[in-house]
Amino acid sequence: MQSEHRKPRWISWLLLGFLLLLIIRALSAEPTPDAPREAPASQKTTKEPPASVVEKPKEKNTPTIRDYPEVQKLVDIDRWRRTINPAEAGEMRVGSRKQGDGESAECGDDVIVDIRGILPDGSAVEIPELPTMPASFRLGESTLDKKWTQIVLGMREGGIRDVSLPHYMIDPSVERKDALRTVQLYVELADRLPDPSITEPAAMSQTRTEGGGQTVACGQTAEVRLTIWREGEPSDTIEAELQLGARELLYGLDRAIAGMQMDEKRSVLIPASYAVRDEGSALDEKILSLIPTGQTTIVDVELIGYTENKSTASTQ
What we know:
By secondary structure, the protein is α+β, with helices and mostly antiparallel strands. It has 2 domains: 65-193, Roll (Chitinase A, domain 3), CATH 3.10.50; 204-308, Chitinase A, domain 3, CATH 3.10.50.40. The chain has helices at 9-28, 69-72, 77-83, 146-152, 251-257, 285-290, and strands at residues 92-98, 110-118, 135-138, 160-166, 182-193, 204-209, 212-215, 221-230, 233-243, 261-262, 265-270, 297-306, 313-315. Strands 3-2-5-4-1-13 form a 6-stranded mixed beta sheet, with helices on one face. Strands 6-11-12-8-9 form a 5-stranded antiparallel beta sheet, with helices on one face. Strands 7-10 form a two-stranded antiparallel sheet. The protein is rod-shaped.
């Protein structure tokens, strides 16, 4: 009987060791690129999109002259750019485009104006002092910069004026050194609002003694010597400081004093409807009691002082 042929035992051990080696290598091998190992949740990061894909915020559209057809008809932007003079960029210049045919606006009048401002690139300019258009204010009003009174004073209803001035004069946040940032304003006097009770001509004045120097302007404070006439004779004489346009003493008196020169003397006839004042006047009660309201009054006025005129405007 033949004995069964058997493999040597060492071969079996060799095969078993080789198999274990393959298993160990398979477990320790790095993942292949096409099958990446998923990172734990705590290590996950959000991948930022490329810069070219990031959505940029939409820019706010800036109003331009095309948004104001009524202004576009008046101005030739290209011509205006060519005429800007850097030497005059720090001044305010006022010119007349249309005269108008109504009553002229005088010191102390309440007016309604429509103002549009543009820069050389055609973009619109906001006016912080007058945010709503059309705007209404009183000529000589202390709460507004005096330039607005100066621009409108003397305009007739329906008239239009061109005004060139540096941007800082409208918006204080703009640096003054940016002289070429000139703003062009188009100012239309839409309406003049006198007191409905006024049916007489305005105050009439006659110069008795010529003065000299600069004139006192509406909105400034004038120091005056007043002689009030009673029963055809000069009577009481008083001195007072009046802000012209504020109607502190008499409405008609403000209109008559505006434009006087130092040491000039005028005789003023104030009709009853212009012999009115605003309530709450800051003047001394004694002065107020000497100047009657609601009746025709004759006053001799002498200008003995006034605040310095800080205006930089030149009228063409």
